[in-house]
Amino acid sequence: MIRKRLGLLIGFMIAVAGCRGNGAESGNPALLSANGHTGEPVHLTVFQLGANINDEEFAILIAEPVKKKYPYITLELVHADQQKTPESLVSGGNIPDLVFTNAAGVRRFKDLQAVQDLTEFVKANGFDLGRFEPHVINTIKAIGDSGQLYAIPFSINFTALFYNKDIFDKFAVPYPKDGMTWDEVTELAKQLTRVDQGVQYYGLHPGGIELKAEQLSLKYVDPITKKATLTGDGWVKVFQTHKAIVDIPDNQPGASIKAFQKDQTLAMSPDKGARLGELEELYNQGNPLRWDLVSFPTFREAPRTDPVAATHMLMMTATGKNKDAAFKVLEVVTEEANQSAMNKRGRLTSLKDPKIKEGFGSHLKSLQGKNVNAIFYNTPAVDLYNDRWTDIVKREVGPAFNRVASGEADINTALRDAQDSANRALEAEFK
C-alpha cells in the first residue's frame, strides 16, 4: 500500500512538473490537455468583424462545444460597431483573444500588427490542414507576406440567387432555374419590376459588382508592378452587366436585405449564404417568407463559375494571454462532429470530406423542401492575389460605376479614370 501511494505521489509530481514546463502562460504552442490544466477558469473574448454570426449561432456552434470539452474555457462574443473597431481596440489595449472574421478582417488586423501566425501551433498540436478545402487554406495563406497562417477556416459563405415565390406567383412569371446567366435573370427581372396596388416591386438587386469581377477572375492590381488593372474587356463586361440591371426602369430596391426580407418587395437577390440564418429567424418569428434559391447567375464567358467562396475564419490575436486555450477553441470548432452539426444548421463546412457536407441545412425548418443542391451547382472561382494593394484599387471601382450609372461618364472613360486614380493612390502608398 505504501509503495502504491508513493507511486501515485511521484506520478502526480511528474504531471505537475509537466504542466509547469508546457509554456501555457507564455503562449508557446505546446500541447495542453484538459487534465493538465491548473483548474483556473479562462475567459476568452471573440470579436465578430465582417463575417456574420448571431448570438444563438455563436452559443450553439462555438461556445457550447468548447465548454463541453474544456469546462474551464468560457467564450464571450463581442460585435463590432462604430465604437468597437480593430483600430480602437488595438489603440486602447483591449485586443480580443480571437476574431471571427473574413479575409478582409484578417488583413485589417495584420496592418495593425495584431495577428498571430498559427504555423507553429499547427505543427506542435498535430493539427491537420489537409482536412480542409484547399482553396480556403490558400486564401488564408495569401494574406501573409510569406505564406503565414493567420487564421483557421470555420465555414464557407457560398453564393446563390434567392427569390420570393409570392412575387413570381403574383405576376404569373415562371420561377428562375439553376444555370441561368446574368442576361437571363435580367430579362426575367424586367417582367417583375412593376407597381401593384400602390406597391413598387423590384425584379432584381444587382448585388456586389466585385462578385461579378471574381466570376471572370479579374485582377485589380498586378502583384509584380503594383499597377492597377481596371481596363480591358473583362471589366467592361462586368460594368455592362451591372448597368443592365440598374437601368431597368424603377428597379432601384435599395438595401437588398431590407427589400427582400422585411419589405418583401424584391423578387430576386443574388447574395451570400449567410442569409439563411436570417431567413430561419424570420420563420421562427412567425413571419416566414415564401422563398427558394437557385444557382448564382453566371457569365456565358465563364459557365458554372461562382464568385470566390468567401471563408469565415477564426483568427488569434498576437497579444492574447491565453493562446493555448485560444488554439483549443480552433481545434474544437473544426472537429468533424462539430463541423457536421454546423453544416446541418446551414453553414457550409470548410472540411472537404463529402460525407460531412451531406445533409446541409437539414436542421433549418425554413430550408425544408428548398433547392439545396443549387449551392453545389457552380464551382467557386479561383481566388487571385489579394492584399492591401488590391484593397486600395477596389476603392475606385464603386465610384467609377456610379459615374457610369449617373451618365457622367461612359464605361471605358470611367474605368480608365479609376485606374489612373488607383495608380496615384498606389504610388502614394509606396512613398
What does the model show?
With 431 residues, the protein is α/β, with parallel strands linked by helices. The protein folds into two domains: 37-157 and 310-363, Periplasmic binding protein-like II (D-Maltodextrin-Binding Protein, domain 2), CATH 3.40.190.10; 159-308 and 379-430, D-Maltodextrin-Binding Protein, domain 2 (3-Layer(aba) Sandwich), CATH 3.40.190.10. It contains 18 helices and 13 strands. The protein has helices spanning 2-20, 55-69, 86-91, 103-111, 119-124, 134-141, 165-170, 182-192, 209-215, 233-246, 256-262, 275-284, 323-333, 336-344, 354-357, 388-394, 397-405, 411-430, and strands at 42-48, 73-79, 98-101, 151-157, 159-164, 194-196, 199-204, 266-272, 291-294, 305-306, 310-316, 348-349, 379-380. Helix 2 crosses helix 13 (323-333). The chain is globular. The model is unreliable at 1-36 (pLDDT under 50).
Structural key phrases:
D-Maltodextrin-Binding Protein, domain 2; 13 strands; 5-stranded mixed β-sheet; 2 domains; single chain; disordered N terminus; alpha/beta; globular; 431 residues; 18 helices; 6-stranded mixed β-sheet
Task: Sum this structure up briefly.
The chain has 431 residues and is α/β, with parallel strands linked by helices.
Count of individual beta strands: 13
Given helix and strand content, the structural type is alpha/beta
Number of helices: 18
Rounded to the nearest angstrom, the radius of gyration is 24 Å
CATH superfamily of the largest domain: Periplasmic binding protein-like II
Strand order of the largest sheet: 2-1-3-11-4-12
> What can be said about the biggest beta sheet?
6 strands, mixed
Highest-level CATH class of the largest domain:
Alpha Beta
Q: List unreliable stretches of 5+ residues.
A: 1-36
Mean pLDDT: 89
Q: Based on the structure, what is the oligomeric state of the protein chains? A: single chain
The N- to C-terminal Cα distance equals 76 Å
As a percent range, the share of helical residues equals: 40-55%
CATH topology of the largest domain: D-Maltodextrin-Binding Protein, domain 2
* CATH-defined architecture of the largest domain: 3-Layer(aba) Sandwich
**Shape summary:** globular
